[in-house]
Amino acid sequence: MFVQASQKSYTYEKINKNKFAIKNALKALGKKNFSLIVHGGSFPSLDGEDTGYGSPNSNGAKALIDFASGIFDSIQLGPSGKTKSIDSSPYTSTIFSNNPMFIDLKQLTQDKWGKILSLKTYNDIVSKNPKLNSGETAYSYAYKAYDSALKEAYQNFTNSNLNDLKEEFEIYKKRNEYWLLSDSLYEALSVEHNNDYWPNWENNLDKNLFNPKNDEQKAAADFRIKELKNKYSDIIDNYAFNQFVVSKQNCETKDYALQKGIKMIADRQVAFSDRDTWAYQSVFLEGWMLGCPPDYFSEDGQAWGFPVINPDTMFNDDGSLGKGGELLKRLYSKMFKENQGGIRIDHIVGLIDPWVYKAGKKPKIEEGASRLFSSPEHPELSRFAIAKMENLNLDVKQDSEKRVINLTDEQIQKYGAMIEKIVIASAIENGLDKNAIVCEDLGTLTNPVAAVLNRYELLGMRLTQFVVAEDPNHAYRCKNIESNCWAMVGTHDNEPLYFWAKKLVNTQDAILHCQNLVDDLWSEANPNIKNALVDKLSKDCKFLTLTKFVEIFASRAINIQVFFSDLLGLNKIYNKPGTSGDQNWCLRIPNNFIDFYIEQLNKNEGLNLFNVLKLAMEARGAEFANLNSQIIKNLDII
Questions:
Q1: Residues 13 and 81 in one domain
Q2: Which of 466, 462, 457, 455 is nearest to 441 (CA)?
Q3: Helix (H) or strand (E) segment spanning residue 267
Q4: Tens-place pLDDT, residues 251-283
C-alpha cells in the first residue's frame, strides 16, 4: 500500500477480459459517468482506410468504441460543425451544418450507397495521404480531397436509381430547411464571389440576404434567393447531400455506440462561424464582440471576434422567445435530440455573464469593454444590466469576478433565463434533464455565473492541473472537489498531464503540490511513509502523473473525463491556443492504438486504470476496506 504498483505485462486480451473489474471499481468509488474525450478528426483509422482525417463514423471509430465499451460509458466529442478551408479549429465551425469531412468515404464505395464513390478515387486519397499512419491529420490535403470525392459521389447519386435514398434525401431537406437553406446558399455565394468570407463580398444585397431592413429589401432578397437557387442548383443540392450523408452516418454510429453502452456527448462552442454570422446578423448586437477580460495570461484580454446575441432579441415582452431565443432553442433542441449523452457547453460564462468589447478595439476596460449584463455604470451597456449599482463592489475593478455581489433571487433568475428557458427546456423536451448539461466553467467564474450554476444545480468542471497549491480551499484540490461535477486532469486545451508533471518535478513548487496530494490521499499513513511519498512524487514525473490520476478517481466527483492523449500516454500537444495552420488541432489516436496503448502500459505510461483504481480505493481507506477487498484483488489479478 502507498507505493506504485509493481510492473506487470499487459496484453489486450487481459485488459478486455478484466473490464468487469474496472467497472466494479468505478461503481464502488461512486463514479456515475466515465467519459473519453475524442474530437471527431482525432478518431483512428483502420489499415488501408486513412484518408488524412479522422471520423467518428469510420471503421476505426467503431474499433475505438469496441475498445472503450465496458469501461467508458460516453465519448465527449468536439464541436461537429463544418470548418473553413483555412482554419481547422472545430471551435469556429458552423452551428447547424455538420463537418462533411466526418463522412466515412469508405461506405460510399459500398453497395449500401450504390458505390457512388469509385474505389479508385478512394484508394488514391488514402495512398496519397501525406500523413499516412503518422497519428496526425493532413487537414489541407483532406479538405480538398473530400471536396472532390463528394462532388463525384453526388453526381453519381443524382444519376443513380437509388430511389429509396433519394426519397429519404428529399424528406431530410424539407425537415431541415430552416438552417440548410442559408448554409447552402452561402456555399453558392462563396463560388459567386470567389471568396468564402462574406465581409469581402462586393454585393451588399448578398451580404444582407437574410438581414433585410424593410419590405423593399425583403422583396429584393427573395428574388435574389430564387435567382441563386436556379443558377447554383447543383452546388446547393450537393451541399445538402453532404449534410444528408453525414447526418445519416452519424445516426448509425450513435446507434452502434448505444448498443455497446456508449453515449455521445456533443460540444457547443461559444462561437458562431462566418456562415452563421452572415445568416443570423439580425440577432447579433451590432458593433460588439465576445471575448475575455485582461488576466494573468493576457494583459490585453482575448479578442475572440465572435458576435454577441442582442439581448433585445432573446425574449419578447410577454416572456416568449424572440428571434435570437428561437435560434438558440432550435440549435439546442437539435443537439440534444442527436446526442443522448448530452451537451458540453464551452465557456458557460459567455451565456450567463459575457465579457464584450467594441469591434475594432481591445477587450480592455479603458477601451469600452465590460460585462454585458453586469455594467449598470456603462454608458452604452447599462440598458442591458441585470445588476444594479447597489449590487457592485466598487472597491474592485470592473473585470473582477467579485465585482457583482448580493444578487436577489429575481436577478439570478434573469441571469439564468437563457439556461432555464432554452438549454434546460431543450434537454427536457428531448427526454433528458439538466444532468445532461456539462458546463465548461474553467477560468474566471463571476458571482452571477456561480449563482446560476448553483441555482439550477448544473455540473461544472474541476481541472486538477489548475489547482492553486497555496490555497487549502481551492476548488480543484482533491479534498474540496464536490460530488456534483466533472473531474479531469486536462482538456483539449491543456498539455498532456505527463508534461505538467515533468515541468513540476524537482522544483520548489513540487513540494507543496505533492504534500497536498499526500495529505488528501493518504492522510492516515504514518509520517515516515508520507514524507517518503512526498519525496518520491516531487522527483518522479511518472509517479506524479499516476498519482494525479488517482486524485480524480479518489475524489468525491461522480463524473470523470479523460482526454485521449492522457489515456494513451500520447505525449504530444493537441491544441496550442493562438496557433493556426495544419500543425494545430492535428493530433489523432494512432491507427494501431491498441498495440500503442499496451506498449505504453508496459513502459508505465498512460492511464493504467488497474493501478489507478486500486490506489484510489486504498486512498479512501477504512471507508472501503471491507467492501472492496475483493475488487482490489480482482484489479491485482492482471
A1: no
A2: 462
A3: strand 263-268
A4: 999 999 999 999 999 999 999 999 999 999 999
